Automatic annotation (TrEMBL):
Name of the protein this chain belongs to: Lipopolysaccharide heptosyltransferase 1
Keywords for the protein's UniProt record, in alphabetical order: Cell inner membrane, Cell membrane, Glycosyltransferase, Lipopolysaccharide biosynthesis, Membrane, Transferase
Metal-binding is among the record's keywords: no
Enzyme class of the recorded protein, top EC level: transferase
GO biological process: one example: lipopolysaccharide core region biosynthetic process
Pathway terms, separated by semicolons: Bacterial outer membrane biogenesis; LPS core biosynthesis
Membrane topology listed for this record: Peripheral membrane protein
């Protein structure tokens, strides 16, 4: 049986599709799964061993430079229509994913029902809509969607992203290191510079290097403030996702705000500590056997807003995240990774 998965973006949403692929491959040996995804996230889709072929669409480039990207779009559409699929599964529930699903050649198209899709009217393009309310984690909802479409019982086994970290991890590091993932799109998801600095100091005193990614001027300025005077901390140059993935996979541990790369770290079964404030980790939190989440304790949590009503001018680290103590974060990371126990 040939199945097409439509999950175009974003980084965290792509990662949350992995457990469903693991389930399907286990329940139906010989199943062929192709994945159509935005080209920016194609390196992620290729990580999962159950994926037969990745079809990458230049969706973001089409928005920025449509004339330059049009040739690649035509090629991708040719690849999309080259295979006739038995089933097409839209696990995103947006109009853009629904359109891609309609353009593919194949049998019945499945997705979330009109009441449970992110953009309800997208369900009008499906042959079958499955009612899976947003009361469970997105990874669980996608697992249920695959089970319903492919006709196997919802597995009762623990969530398994199914990734092989050992085959991906960077090998060139001279010292063990942790990765601090500080960058995020919402100001309300940031942690304080002081918090990051304290954590970097503790890790450095424990004999670990501290690596920080920086994309754009704002993130570079934040990293410079975090690393100032801390020899163990260093900023990595901007890189494409295929260069970032091995760095994360080779880490001894990761501390992250609510952002896509943090979800990848947890999916790699890395010791991962997540710092949450305005968002609900019960619906879109870390998925992994060695993940721990710090959740804001204020009564307004989760507000699901990119601005703070309590303190609009907080700068970085809104009140709901500022309460997360760096010492507690470090202890949580040590608990997740026995190799760090006894350090510091």
């Amino acid at each position: 049986m040939r199945v097409l998965l439509v999950k175009l973006s974003s980084l965290g949403d792509v990662v949350h599709s992995f457990p469903a692929l693991t389930d399907a491959a286990s329940a139906m040996p010989g199943l062929e799964i192709d994945w159509v995804v935005d080209e920016a996230f194609a390196p992620l889709a290729r990580l999962h061993p159950a994926v037969n072929r990745v079809i990458q669409l230049p969706i973001r480039r089409m928005k920025k430079t449509p004339r330059a990207a049009f040739g690649d779009l035509r090629l991708a559409m040719h690849q999309l229509r080259a295979t006739r699929y038995d089933l097409i599964i839209d696990a995103q529930g947006l109009w853009k994913s629904a359109i891609v699903g309609r353009l593919a050649r194949g049998g019945r198209r499945h997705g979330f029902s009109r009441d449970t899709a992110r953009e309800g009217t997208a369900a009008l393009t499906y042959d079958v809509g499955h009612a899976l309310p947003e009361v469970e984690h997105m990874a669980t909802r996608i697992r249920r969607l695959f089970a319903a479409v492919l006709g196997y019982p919802m597995p009762q086994t623990p969530v398994d992203p199914g990734l092989d970290r050992g085959g991906v991890a960077a090998r060139s590091a001279s010292r063990p290191y942790i990765v601090l993932i500080h960058g995020t799109t919402w100001p309300t998801k940031t942690w304080t510079v002081e918090g990051w600095r304290s954590l970097a100091i503790q890790a450095g005193e424990a004999g670990l290097d501290v690596l920080l990614f920086a994309h754009g001027d704002k993130e570079r300025a934040r990293v410079d403030a975090i690393a100032d005077g801390i020899p163990a901390a260093r900023r990595l140059p901007p890189g494409r996702l295929e260069a970032v993935i091995p760095v994360i996979a080779g880490a001894e541990g990761v501390v992250t705000v609510d952002t896509g790369l943090g979800h990848l770290a947890a999916a790699f079964d890395l010791p991962t500590v997540g710092l949450y404030g305005p968002t609900n980790p019960g619906l879109t939190g870390l998925v992994g056997a060695r993940a721990h989440e710090f959740i804001g304790r204020l009564p307004c949590v989760p507000c699901e807003k990119s601005s703070c009503a309590i303190r609009p001018d907080f700068g970085e680290g809104p009140p709901c995240l500022a309460d997360h103590a760096p010492e507690a974060v470090w202890r949580a990371l040590q608990k997740l990774n026995p190799n760090l126990v006894g350090r510091l």
